[in-house]
């Protein structure tokens, strides 16, 4: 090991940055802290020793023994911490690499399908078009899954940067409702949207917020049966904007409610209605809302419906 | 009057040249087929070095640039294009699957006109962006 490498090993802050965790959870820093603690303990033991014991050799021996014992414990603890942190870093890196590799062939597939469907390479029969549509839909599904996985990996490695602008949440919601209109119509679900007061524009990351509302609206339509009704309300509450979306869908069983924001979790009862879905949407939504400085929650009753809400600071 | 055909069509001065620097042959083919009906001449380049060379010799009206490229990374290509006074005014659309904020910022800083994440755009939308960048 040359000098430069030793220097790198000693630069604790740099080492900790690699794991992307706070200083208090960083193995190298904890090891240093424990080292200091051991020295302090040794000195204290020595001071107590010479005060109460007569034989200086015995004092030295006891101090050495205590120090060695503490050192071994400290070493094994930080060692296992280090392994955990490394495993976590590798996992996030794995997700990111795999998803990037998946993206290239997926966008190729997507564009090739679009070219075939455009008719530029020759006319296509109606019954062929139906299969092209299936191809296109499935590619889109995979693309959105990959993009969710990438968002998850960004959340976990704390690389979810914010891009704040001033925007109107009301416009954002109206825009999303019109995007979901065909899906809602197809599912025979009616969307009501009401804003009682004039709302201030907010200063935050509109793209991230858009992803949250997109998820909530998609869930509400997806898990509501025929002739369903969705109600969206936005209001101002102190220094926050309060958003609420209520559906009369399948609801979430009591026993599943505490897991609902967990990654990859999908309630058993929704699997009966919808097999599609990655179980990432609500996990991502919660992470984003918290990152934007708000809170998210829900209440739900199986067979009656769910209400999801979140708050977001105006400034 | 229809579109001029044959040799005349090839020599049409108004036909815009697009240099497409992208290592995926599937995409090269898809793009050139999709643009066939339109008045564009596609010049394919499968790696960064070739792309840079063709940008200097062919003087395209627009460059579509991927970032992860063999031989020379897209950022390097972009940097060199903007350093050279013969190529610095050619609009460059970055077309990639990288969507990190730092990548986007870097490309814009280096002088890219637009930054498009492949997964978020349809072919039609990309062609619209090309038209816009060409002022059409």
What does this structure look like?
The complex is a heterodimer of chains A (315) and B (136). Chain A is of the alpha+beta class. Chain A folds into 2 domains: 1-159, no CATH class; 165-313, Histidine kinase-like ATPase, C-terminal domain (Heat Shock Protein 90). Chain A is 60% helix and 15% strand. A 5-stranded mixed β-sheet of chain A has the order 2-4-5-7-6, covered by helices on one side. A two-stranded antiparallel sheet of chain A has the order 1-3. In chain A, helix 3 runs antiparallel to helix 4 (56-118) and helix 7 (206-222) runs antiparallel to helix 9. Chain A is elongated. Chain A starts with a helix and ends with a strand. The model of chain A has no long low-confidence stretch (mean pLDDT 84). With 136 residues, chain B is of the alpha/beta class. Chain B has a single domain (15-133), classed as Rossmann fold, CATH 3.40.50.2300. In chain B, 42% of the residues lie in helices and 18% in strands. Chain B has 6 helices and 5 strands, in the order αβαβαβαβαβα. Chain B has helices at residues 6-11, 25-34, 48-58, 74-83, 101-109, 123-133; strands at 16-21, 40-45, 62-65, 92-96, 114-117. Chain B has a 5-stranded parallel β-sheet, sandwiched between helices. In chain B, helix 3 (48-58) packs parallel to helix 4 (74-83). The longest helix of chain B is centred in the middle third of the chain and has 11 residues, at 48-58. Chain B is globular, with a radius of gyration of 15 Å.
> Are there runs of chain B of 5+ residues with pLDDT below 50, and where?
1-6
Unreliable spans of chain A are: none
Number of domains of chain B: 1
Compute the number of helices of chain B: 6
List the secondary-structure elements of chain A in sequence, H or E. HHHHHEHEEHEEHHEE
Average of the residue pLDDT scores of chain A: 84
Strand order of the largest sheet of chain B: 2-1-3-4-5
Query: How many strand elements of chain B?
Result: 5
Radius of gyration of chain B over all CA atoms, rounded: 15 Å
Supply Rg of chain A.
Answer: 28 Å
Q: What level of helicity do the residues of chain B show?
A: 40-55%
Q: Work out the number of β strands of chain A.
A: 7
Q: Main sheet of chain B, how many strands, which sense, barrel?
A: 5 strands, parallel
CATH class of chain B: Alpha Beta
């Amino acid at each position: 090991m040359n000098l430069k490498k030793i220097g790198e090993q000693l630069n604790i802050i740099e080492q900790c940055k690699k794991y992307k965790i706070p200083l208090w959870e960083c193995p190298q820093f904890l090891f240093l802290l424990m080292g200091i603690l051991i020295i302090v303990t040794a000195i204290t033991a020595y001071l107590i020793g010479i005060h109460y014991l007569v034989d200086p050799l015995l004092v030295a021996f006891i101090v050495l023994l205590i120090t060695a014992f503490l050192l071994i414990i400290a070493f094994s603890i930080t060692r296992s911490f280090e392994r955990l942190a490394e495993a976590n870093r590798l996992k996030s890196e794995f997700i990111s690499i795999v998803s990037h590799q998946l993206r290239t062939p997926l966008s190729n597939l997507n564009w090739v399908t679009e070219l075939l469907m455009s008719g530029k390479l020759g006319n296509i029969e109606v019954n062929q078009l139906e299969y092209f549509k299936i191809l296109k839909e499935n590619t889109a599904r995979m693309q959105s899954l990959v993009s969710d996985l990438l968002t998850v990996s960004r959340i976990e490695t704390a690389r979810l940067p914010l891009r704040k602008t001033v925007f109107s949440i009301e416009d954002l919601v109206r825009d999303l409702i019109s995007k979901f209109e065909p899906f809602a119509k197809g599912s025979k679900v009616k969307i009501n949207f009401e804003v009682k007061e004039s709302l201030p524009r907010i200063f935050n990351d509109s793209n991230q917020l858009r992803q949250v509302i997109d998820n909530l609206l998609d869930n509400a339509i997806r898990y509501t049966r025929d002739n369903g009704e969705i109600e969206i309300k936005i209001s101002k509450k102190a220094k926050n904007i309060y958003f609420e979306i209520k559906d009369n869908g399948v609801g979430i069983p009591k026993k599943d409610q505490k897991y609902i924001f967990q990654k990859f979790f999908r309630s058993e009862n929704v699997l009966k209605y919808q097999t599609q879905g990655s179980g990432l949407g609500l996990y991502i939504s919660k992470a984003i809302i918290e990152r934007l400085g708000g809170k998210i929650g829900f209440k739900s009753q199986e067979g009656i419906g769910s209400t999801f809400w979140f708050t977001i600071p105006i400034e | 009057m229809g579109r001029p055909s044959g040799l005349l069509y090839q020599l049409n001065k108004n036909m815009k040249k697009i240099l497409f620097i992208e290592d995926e042959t599937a995409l090269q083919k898809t793009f050139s087929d999709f643009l066939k009906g339109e008045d564009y001449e596609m010049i394919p380049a499968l790696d960064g070095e070739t792309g840079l060379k063709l940008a200097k010799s062919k003087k395209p009206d627009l460059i579509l640039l991927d970032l992860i490229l063999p031989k020379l990374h897209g950022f390097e290509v972009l940097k060199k294009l903007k350093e050279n006074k013969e190529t610095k005014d050619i609009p460059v659309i970055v077309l990639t699957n990288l969507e990190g904020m730092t990548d986007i910022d870097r490309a814009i800083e280096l002088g890219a006109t637009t930054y498009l994440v492949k997964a978020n755009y349809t072919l039609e939308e990309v062609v619209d962006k090309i038209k816009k960048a060409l002022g059409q």
